[in-house]
Amino acid sequence: MSRRLIGFAGMTHLGVNSAVAAAERGFSVIGFDRDGDQIMALQQGKPSSVEPDLPELLAKNRARITFSTVADTLRSCDVVYIAEDVPTDDGGLSDLGPVRSLIDDVSRAMSVDGVLVVLSQVPPGFTRRLPRPPASTFYQVETLIFGRAVERALQPERLIVGCADPRTPLPGALAEFLGAFGCPILTMSYESAELSKISINMCLVASISTANTIAELCERIGADWSDIVPALRLDRRVGPHAYLAPGLGIAGGNLERDLRTFCHLADRHGTDASVVRAWIANSDHRRDWVLGQLHERVIAKTPEPTVAVLGLAYKPDTSSTKNSPALALLAALAPFPVRAYDPVVTPRPEYHPRLVRATSALDACAAADAVAIMTPWAEFRRLAPAAVAARLRGRTVIDPYAVLDAGACRASGLEHVTLGAPLPRGAV
């Protein structure tokens, strides 16, 4: 076990997964948070974040991790990571107040030899403006993905570190810690590292927007996006790992924040952000895809239709509903009865005025005129289309992510509607 002691301030989704990964790599860890309930739950082995393998790894490494509400426990740490959530408003703008407050508290508690690393997602220029010694202050790009956070924290593709002077070697404690992950370490200026995080997400959004735009045309002209994807993956300019799955717009908060941050910076400095605004508009447009299909196929033809909604989380393997297309759909379906089910997220009355909380996916389908599968949970992939058909009153299955087998749906007499595939007959 390493003698280095690594601290994480902020037991958020980012902080907890990063702390557990550090312990799994053999380091002693202190997890600090001002929320006593959060710390008590972690001491009992109950993380609030829903992630595959997280509870198991937390239990395995429990002896290496100390959880505390006392900032002074960080004084003995060689390196302390700031992992506070940076909340965003409905427009994607960041509130940096909480992370600044936490940095102030942690800086007062740390030893003079300690290294502070900002892991929270902050805009370019933030780290350089901190009132701390530059030689012991760094920014590190976080690249966790909801639903894959443990995997990403344990096996990063590369580590990107922002420094006051990239020509100066990293402090020994930080270099030792980062070196334990066995991947390339890229050092650069604070501003370059902070913009790297935004750049990664912008390239991802560009791929998503391209897939969404072409997939929509596929639906109308009889082409199938799933036929086209293998051709793109074999093109070296696109590549086998490109993100080419169409979806219901961007969600989760982080991508939206980065797009808004870039637009704000571009406006301030007089550079062009028109393509970024086009991506935002495309996301808004595609988010309503399910609603449009329901209107066309069910609502326009059925008095007082009942809709089953499967999945409320914005993506599988997480409990986050930040900017979830499912919640946007529920809001738009306010006049109609809705039966909802999610394996992790509990349907709440505030989501919909006529919401019925179902006990299972098939229970949600009972006597519904249509079902919309809004989150591609693995549980839903095991549904038998024949069983779904037996529960439904109607025949329409809106399945954006092709969770159900199309052939089995057709054999069961279901109208199966999927992103990027030719629309069933009767579509406009």
Q: Could you name the key traits of this structure?
A:
N-(1-d-carboxylethyl)-l-norvaline Dehydrogenase, domain 2; Rossmann fold; alpha/beta; 13% strand; globular; 16 helices; eight-stranded mixed β-sheet; 428 residues; 39% helix; six-stranded parallel β-sheet
Q: Please, could you describe this protein's structure?
A:
With 428 residues, the protein is an alpha/beta fold. It folds into three domains: 186 residues, Rossmann fold (3-Layer(aba) Sandwich); 88 residues, N-(1-d-carboxylethyl)-l-norvaline Dehydrogenase, domain 2 (Orthogonal Bundle); 130 residues, Rossmann fold (3-Layer(aba) Sandwich), CATH 3.40.50.720. The chain has an eight-stranded mixed beta sheet with strand order 3-2-1-4-5-6-7-8, sandwiched between helices. The radius of gyration is 24 Å and the shape is globular. The termini are far apart.
CATH architectural grouping of the largest domain: 3-Layer(aba) Sandwich
CATH topology category name of the largest domain:
Rossmann fold
CATH superfamily heading of the largest domain = NAD(P)-binding Rossmann-like Domain
Pattern of helices and strands: EHEHHEEHEEHEHEHHHHHEHEEHEHHEHE
Uncertain spans: none
Helix content: 25-40%
**End-to-end distance:** 64 Å
Question: What shape does the CA trace take?
Answer: globular
CATH class bucket of the largest domain: Alpha Beta
